[in-house]
Give the backbone structure.
Amino acid sequence: MTKNSESTAIDVAPENPNSGPIGKKKSTTPLLAAPVPVRQDRGTHRMKRGLAIFDFVLRIGALAAALAAAAAMGTSDETLPFFTQFFQFEASYDDLPTFQFFVIAMGIVAGYVVLSIPFSIVCIVRPHAVGPRLLLLILDSVALTLTTVAAGAAAAVVSLAHSGNSSTNWLAICNQFGDFCQQASGAVIGSFAAVLLFLLLILFSALSLKHH
Amino acid sequence: MTKNSESTAIDVAPENPNSGPIGKKKSTTPLLAAPVPVRQDRGTHRMKRGLAIFDFVLRIGALAAALAAAAAMGTSDETLPFFTQFFQFEASYDDLPTFQFFVIAMGIVAGYVVLSIPFSIVCIVRPHAVGPRLLLLILDSVALTLTTVAAGAAAAVVSLAHSGNSSTNWLAICNQFGDFCQQASGAVIGSFAAVLLFLLLILFSALSLKHH
């Protein structure tokens, strides 16, 4: 029974260079060096490959969300159509340090997602590989933290820009700079979408590790 | 070899109700219903128990950090020693919606950590249990997100309170309300400590799942 399921696994994943000699060897002694293929069967193999493909799709989505958030915040710039003798009224994302941090953090996250895509493809080709899966899980947690802290900080500032705060005498600026505020709000929504996608990525990585 | 390690595992973890009959059965047919104890040995068992104890300690630390952050922010309240005919100058955390959210979020996170401690103890008693470990990993990710978003938002507002922003005409209030600002800053630092501890918790949960 175990011998049978082992050869089945080799048929499904012929690209594994270690499994070839094991399949040809007919001795019944247990192989200490290759303990992985013993317990796999067709069902978990298919499920893990499905999870890996889903991981790839979610990763593309997270990349799109992070890039869209960075682009929306980075291009937010509004100049009012009137000006005094001394200065023009202009609002841009680099007036607020929080928004600058947001653009940089989203750029880093987008770069990380691009670099992580090859590992995700490795997980599709070899659904039982534990190393890349674990690496992705840990780095995804770090990316989740970076995305979330940028999203939270930008959301707090956007909320202040929308409604102001009477206790601290901070006035709402969205009455004057409506377009700027709308674009910043869109960027915050995009970053929270990225947060949600990273949470799902961690969930599926954990499920994939469970059935190892 | 496999038979030997199986009986060792049963000696160490006698509370598993499924392992008793397997240990007594002397037939060589593989049991489909109980594939888990085949590959475990004493080394990974010890390592997993060590990781589980470390998980418990980190969890206590995260609870302390979240409670301290909530308490520091919740008791931040300063009344200036002078007043006009019409009103007193007072700053409190509930003047700012972001700080209110921070206190509520830290309270929820502290409550979650308290509820998660029994599962952590289960993982110490049964280091090879996958269910509680996976549950903790997924819920820790959600708690990490909540902690991080509250920490990021509060950090953005504290930074504004400290240095203000000239573009939007938001003046720094920490010149007047120094003690209030200090307490809020301490709360933000505590919440970032909780973020770090949650990241470590996720890392160790992932490592523990890997060697399953």
Remarks:
- The longest strand of chain B covers residues 77-83.
- Residues 42-74 of chain B form the longest helix (33 residues).
- The beta strands of chain B are 77-83, 88-92.
- Chain B is about 70% helix and 5% strand.
